[in-house]
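Human: I'm a chemist; would you kindly supply sequence and structure tokens for a protein?

Assistant:
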Amino acid sequence: MAEFTRQRGKRQEDGGLGSVLDLLLANARLVLGVSGAAVLAIATLAVKRLIDRATSPRDEGDPKAEQKTLEESWQDLALIKATAKPPKKQRREDLSEPLLSPARPPAPGEACEPRVSSAPPETPQVESTPPRCLTLQEKLLSHYSSWLAVPKVEASLAPQLARSICTQLQNFLRSKCPELPFGSLFLSGPLLDGLGAPGADYVHLMLPVVLDTALWSLIPGEDTVVRNPQYWMIKRTDLEYFPRGRSPWDRFIVGQYFSSNALNETLHKMLVGSINWPAIGSLLGSVIHPVVASQELKLQVRHDQVELSITLFPMVEMEDKVLLSAPPEGLVENLWLESFHRAEVLKMKELDASDSGARQRCLHILNSICRSHPALHKLNGSPLTHVVLHLSATTLDWAEESLADRFQEVLEELVGYLEKGVLPSYFNHKINLFCDLLEEEIDEMGFLLYRAVSEPELLLKEK
């Protein structure tokens, strides 16, 4: 009974102390806020536990009870130390909620202070004028004026270098082979003739081979072994009356025919092994190298301001034909390729002069596109010229204002020819200018140009 009275008194004391603590905590919530009141409550609870253990009777001689009391004291002391430390601020990246809470509306009569932002002031947006959409006509003219422009230094230096090399080569041939009646070397190519894309990087060097027409005759291409009307053979005639040795070119005869291969091999040996190109290059302020591995007769010229590729073409003019010593690849020999380049240049300039047309300008753009695009590279040059000439026979309006329309029509014509796999020469319809193209190459070109018919800008983007 006495024990019960003692415990009850203790509960009453605890109840009185609890009432005091509750009152203290309630007031603390108002003064310190929720977080401050929570800290005070933890500290108060720890102090209360220490008071309870101090006023409660101790079990003398019970080691377990003493150990339990000691552990509880360490826990309460640690709790007090923890509450003494101010709560750490959370880092911004640890928060899942926004840092700023919704702003409290100002109380009546309370001044609303402006909120200061740490972010730098935004630069006022200035509305830019949207780019103007260029028409195809404007894009083509811009393409012609910018992309096709050749620096004046290159345009003047390249022909000058080529002419100097031409003079040196002419002097060498006359001193080395005085018995061979070579004509005067002259330059050709897009930079000088004005049809291809203006480019100062390659030049053709034409070497006329003068034949006695009484001793030589032409065999049409249809009668040759390749059955190709573009390749001709030059036959030595009347050998029973004019035996070998009568013509200085008889040394290049193979089976009664003037062999283009034999002539090229002789000239190639001269270019590679007989001419002192380092001395000539030093004289011209450049470095000149003959291309040894090529079947063509090529020179590479490197100057401080321009790099140049020169290709030498022996040529024969007979019966209004211009034949080049450019045989097809393979085992076939003695063939000469008919060239229409001179006729192309004359016809194109004649048509443009008659109606102030833009055919040459259109051809410049087409050649530059095909020359820079790997898939269209083999269309560059003569094939494009013949397409424009074919279209000129049916379309008369070639004024500059119609450049875009003619450009698209040329693309349509090209797609049509590629579908058939046949592009007839303007000067000889028996000749197919696509005969040397592979089927895969034709398909690739046709697919690309078919897309470009409806969207010509695809070609102008390629560089």
Observations:
- The first helix runs from residue 2 to 55.
- The radius of gyration is 49 Å.
- Residues 152-338 form a domain with the Beta Polymerase; domain 2 fold (CATH 3.30.460.90).
- The first strand starts at residue 186 and ends at 188.
